[in-house]
């Protein structure tokens, strides 16, 4: 449903653990983390204790107190005790955001509240998440915005559109990207060849935003003014005041003024989250702090961001089988790598 930031390639091959659809801003997983054992999905707490036994075919992270899970080919929502609050009945389901969640029925998306009441009838080809009271929705291959009653506030006319933030929203039209306000007025003209919006479920947007022109990436402020001129071969969104950029084949980090604070030296890098970012050198992944110092030396095959104190990792076991687990910020296993 969402297009993730992707110009600095990520190591999120942890699809088993990271195919989630979101969480709240602060305790973003609600202190619950997904695991998969013997083909079934369950949840652990921050201490690695299994709190919901693996029993679901698939599932997402907790958001606003509920998590979407599937039984067979139908999706519903459970509470942190593992009890169904909304019984499995949908063909697809997303995270709760601003009190509503998108659900799929007969190939159309609509929205339910936390009691399962259908608030907006399924009618859309695709949807994003609600933010600042509006949500991007697509009909007939054009995207506009609706409010929480389902009324259009911006009629569908864009090739694609992204959730609102700070009163603005990134949109694409005629192959170019720009920013509109919540009434649909173009604030930053359609002029960029590409632009990035972070995976909204996990990370709140930060200005300046990465944009690409003629093959080079820079960063613009809320007025569309370049604060970092286009000069990088790749870039990611800012998180915690830093953004990864690629130059001469290596990835480093800049601050919002464009100063290179961690020199390009990595083959890949993720966002900073909870003061740490994963980086890769060669075929191994570790974690650095905002000074660029290794806090956890490269040793994993793949890794994801720290959220609520834990980060998902993967390693190879016997017979080259993939094993998935969670570590804390010291690198200690909280949930030992297991075969999914």
Description:
With 340 residues, the chain is mainly beta. Helix content is 1%, strand content 53%. The chain contains 1 helix and 35 strands. The chain has one helix at residues 15-18, and strands at residues 33-37, 40-44, 50-56, 58-59, 67-71, 74-78, 84-90, 92-97, 100-105, 108-112, 118-124, 126-127, 134-139, 142-147, 152-158, 160-161, 168-173, 176-181, 186-192, 194-195, 209-213, 216-220, 226-232, 234-235, 242-247, 250-255, 260-266, 268-269, 277-281, 284-288, 294-300, 302-303, 311-316, 322-327, 333-338. The strands form 9 sheets. It has a 4-stranded antiparallel beta sheet with strand order 4-5-6-7, with no helix packed on it. It has a 4-stranded antiparallel beta sheet with strand order 8-9-10-11, with no helix packed on it.
Helix fraction, binned, reads under 10%
Largest sheet: 4 strands, antiparallel
Form type: flat
Radius of gyration: 20 Å
For the residues shown, what is the average pLDDT? 91
* Percentage of β-strand residues: over 45%
The count of strands amounts to 35
Unreliable stretches (pLDDT < 50, length at least 5) are 1-27
Which class do the helix and strand fractions yield? mainly beta
Tally of separate helices: 1
Strand order of the largest sheet: 4-5-6-7
Terminal residue distance: 24 Å
